[in-house]
Design brief:
This protein is α/β, with parallel strands linked by helices and 476 residues long. It has four domains: 14-114, OB fold (Dihydrolipoamide Acetyltransferase, E2P) (Beta Barrel), CATH 2.40.50.140; 120-288, Succinyl-CoA synthetase domains (Rossmann fold, 3-Layer(aba) Sandwich); 392-424; 428-469, no CATH class. It has eleven helices and 13 strands. Strands 1-2-3-5-4 form a five-stranded mixed β-barrel. A five-stranded parallel sheet has the order 7-6-8-9-10. A hairpin with a 6-residue loop joins strand 1 (38-48) and strand 2. The longest helix is centred in the C-terminal third of the chain and has 66 residues, at 359-424. The protein is elongated. The model is unreliable at 275-279 (pLDDT under 50).
């Protein structure tokens, strides 16, 4: 690296100054040319799965961490589901992501520590289906006592169907054998097995079904460890016997099926009423040989992949651009969300202002004021009536008091008038020896000229009346 003397003006040449992109390109080439592809062990953290299908995470231990990228094309042989906190072993090539200057690992392959790739996926799915109750004994259907037709879901090219036919011909030749042919290995085989099993169940022609295939490695038997097949097995109404691989081979289909047979031949024996045992040594040896061949093939395939990973591939730049696209897509989503939130805030503000100028608000306010005025008027009328009632009550009391007082005064005056009238009363005069004479028409006689001889007069005394007839009139 050039040495600079900052105390002088001409200590270095301008040609010795790197641009940022040039320096990062130099680092990128240095890392990829000098650091080989290697295996690392650590714990997954910060795992993300963007829409592009690539996986990004950090591999860490107690002292450090490094960013990792596992592109979609390198995921095809990974069957388990990586999770944060999982300890893994990964095979990766170091590189530098020049767009950000980040050191990272381009992952070629990962495996869980302690178990293989497929074994981890097997344990994950097994735990998931167990929690959902697909393995519970209460869902297991009993095998029928009488069997007229046996449905076999397997490949017509394999030895499985021939073994089953051979056993049934010796043990129970009366049963009809219906083969639902399908592939039992390879990509898409789990979906095809599920379709064949569904068709066999819906045909309602079989008393019992045998889901079978020969032995093989975990990779060979992987179609029977897929969730799509397990769900169809659980939903069937026809009893199912699983006979997959060897006795030591255990698949998810074995846990979900109603019965499990160690071999397809044993499944044929289990499905028929006769309990005779058949020798399956040749079938086992063939399966073991096939398993060994598959194991050798898998080892050579793994070595080939290691050699292939060391050859520079033209898709490395494509991976870099794909990763950059993921970053730009993430930024675009962030800006889109920010703009949407800002516009939504402005819209809410305008809506609130519109609500304030809405005639409905003014009408509602005036209605509230009218209701308040109505309530106040009603309360004022009630108070006025109460006050007038109190005043009326006081006036009534004063009137009664005044009437009593006036009545007493009138009674006193009346008593005085009565006393005066008593003094002036003719009856009082009569008691002193006087009398009053009246004519027939009750006119009082005041003079002698008012009466004639022969007239009838009435004389009133203090103790009674005297009726008399005038015989003589004398004048003073």
């Amino acid at each position: 690296m050039p040495q600079f003397d900052f105390d002088t003006h001409n200590a270095f040449n301008l040609d010795e100054i790197y641009s940022v992109s040039g320096f990062l390109s130099l680092c990128h080439s240095t890392i990829e040319n000098n650091i080989p592809t290697c295996w690392l062990k650590g714990e997954i953290s910060n795992l993300s799965r963007p829409a592009s299908g690539h996986w990004y995470f950090s591999l860490k231990d107690e002292r450090g961490q490094v960013r990792c990228a596992l592109f979609r094309l390198n995921q095809r042989n990974i069957k388990f589901n990586p999770e944060n906190g999982m300890e893994i072993l990964l095979h990766a090539a170091p590189t530098l992501y020049e767009a950000r200057g980040d050191f990272q690992l381009i992952v070629r392959h990962i495996e869980p520590v302690g178990v293989g790739n497929l074994q981890a996926a097997f344990e994950q799915l097994k735990a998931k289906l167990r929690d959902k109750g697909l393995f519970d004994a209460k869902h297991k259907k009993p095998l029928p006592a009488k069997v007229d037709a046996i449905g076999v879901i397997s490949s017509s090219n394999g030895a499985v169907i021939q073994d089953i036919i051979k056993v049934l011909n010796k043990r129970y030749p009366f049963a009809e054998i219906l083969l639902f042919d399908c592939v039992v290995q390879g990509e898409g085989s789990a979906e095809k097995l599920a379709q064949a099993l569904y068709a066999a169940d819906k045909s309602e022609r079989c008393d019992v079904l045998i889901l079978a295939r020969g032995g093989g490695s975990l990779e060979d038997l992987w179609a029977f460890n897929e969730e799509v097949l397990a769900k169809v097995i659980f939903a069937t109404t026809t009893p199912i016997i699983s006979a997959i691989g060897h006795e030591t081979d255990t698949t998810i289909a074995d846990f979900v099926a109603d019965k499990r047979a160690p071999t397809p031949s044993a499944a044929a024996m289990m499905a028929t009423p006769d309990k005779l045992e058949l020798l399956t040594k040749l079938s086992r040896l063939h399966a073991n040989l096939l398993q060994q061949m598959q194991q050798y093939l898998a080892n050579y395939q793994h070595q080939l992949e290691q050699l292939n990973s060391k050859i520079p591939k033209p898709n490395q730049q494509l991976n870099v651009f794909s990763q950059r696209l993921d970053v730009l897509h993430s930024n675009l989503n962030y800006y889109a969300k920010t703009t949407l939130n800002l516009n939504q805030s402005k819209l809410n503000t305008l809506f609130e202002q519109l609500k304030q100028h809405s005639p409905n608000t003014d009408i509602t306010h005036k209605k509230e004021l009218n209701q308040l005025a109505k309530t106040q008027l009603r309360n004022s009328i009630k108070r006025t009536i109460t006050e007038q009632n109190l005043n009326l009550s006081k006036l009534m009391q004063n009137l009664e008091k005044s009437m009593r007082s006036s009545l007493e005064q009138q009674q006193n005056k009346l008593s005085m008038h009565i006393t005066g009238l008593n003094h002036l009363s003719p009856l009082n005069t009569l008691s002193r020896g006087y009398s009053i004479s009246t004519l027939k028409d009750n006119r009082v006689l005041n003079t002698t000229t008012e009466v004639k001889i022969g007239a009838l007069i009435t004389t009133r005394l203090s103790d009674g009346k005297i009726y008399s007839k005038v015989e003589k009139i004398e004048k003073n």
